[in-house]
Amino acid sequence: MLTAARLGATALAGLLLAGSAAAPALADTPAPSPVTPPAALYGKGDPTYDGVWRQSLALTALASAHVVPAASAVDWLTGQQCADGGWPSFRAATTAACDPKTEDSNATSVAVQALTALGGHQDAVAKGVGWLKANQNTDGTWAYNPGSPGDANSTGLAAAALTAAHIDPATVAKAGGNAWNGLSGFQLGCTAPTARGAFAYQPAPDGTLAANDLASAQAALAAAGGALPVTTTDRLDAAPAALACPAGDTSRTVPHAQSAEAAAAYLVAQLGANGQHLMLTTPGAQPAPDLNATSWAVLALVRAGHPHQAAAAADWLAGNGYTWAAKGKNGTDPSAAATLLLVAQAAKLDPYNFGGTNLVQLLLDAGPAAAKTPAAAASAASANPDGTKAPGSGITEADDNGGFSPIWLVGIGLVVGIGGGLLISINRRRQAAAAAAAPSGDDAAAGGDGQS
């Protein structure tokens, strides 16, 4: 069983192996004092590393559930934006000018998607898009922090933000390399011996690519023309087609027209090989279910037109997501709760009874009182007042959650819930906060699985 201390050490090891320029402070550097989150922010944990990220996901998910959030919650997010249009992970003193080195593409990308979903924030969205365009690398990629080599997750998130803002990523280029060119540099093509169609986080120093499941899921959503929240009217009855590699094909890259389908085929294979979830393989730790990567895989598959292939993974999340979303050291993890709410909406499951959990109410309770909630929210709360406390390990009936197959529970008590933001590929500087917010081994034994 992983302890919080071990998770912190392995997270740092992963950053060092990746050569991250945005790694958390080393042991001989004093950790920053914890920041008390403002009342307008969702979640009770220190927002230093994930404030904008979790607020943006929460607002996007609530908008998809037809909730009108508190004006203070939206104002907090817009108030975090810097004069040049970018967002940092968290900006404590909004009266002071931003340090450009603290602005990051991940926070900016999800903020743009949140404000687009909410509507009425065209100026902030336009400035955010302008920042993304200005900070694109010459190869078409985006890095977490400007000036660093690009990575698949940041590039996928940026492309999704452009899509949300109704801008074709193919038209956003720097020195001839557009967003799709940049994304293609991370995808394993026909020269790869295995895992064709997957995305790597970044190339190794020798240029080789190693499949990364979270990178594959986030990049696949963008490649499929998706953004948050995920909706689609397209449904393909056939399973996604694996990348076709005729004999003698030496193509290292995957054409954009085939990118999403090839990545979807890889994700379906990975889900099937692991009991309908993806695995977290943090260096130095035992492999464990990765709820965050699994969630993004569901979103990508739905957007790519394969909701049938995503259904079993969505059911697995309903049966195993409660501890991840609701049982961190600081209570509800708004990033996790919002991600599951986005999954429920995309997979057409019941967000008011997602494996026994009322995800809408869980997220509402984690932030300022909403300005308006739909009638369905009040009805669900009245029918099941303990919905936010029900264990996610409950087996759903065949007619629950939109009629998907019964959920089976895997690994209760085997894996610690580590909250949002562990993997380097989402938000590398949030890792210290994620490790600090992780429940202990005893907490995990009492509640079940949880991953970032």
From TrEMBL:
Instruction: From the UniProt entry, list the residue stretches annotated as the region Disordered.
Output: 377-397
Entries under Pfam families matching the protein:
SQHop_cyclase_C
Q: Signal peptide position in this chain?
A: 1-27
Query: Coiled-coil regions in this chain?
Result: none
Per UniProt, which keywords does this protein have? Membrane, Metal-binding, Signal, Transmembrane, Transmembrane helix
UniProt key word Translocase? no
Q: Which SUPFAM superfamilies match?
A: Terpenoid cyclases/Protein prenyltransferases
Indicate what this protein is called per its UniProt record. Answer: Squalene cyclase C-terminal domain-containing protein
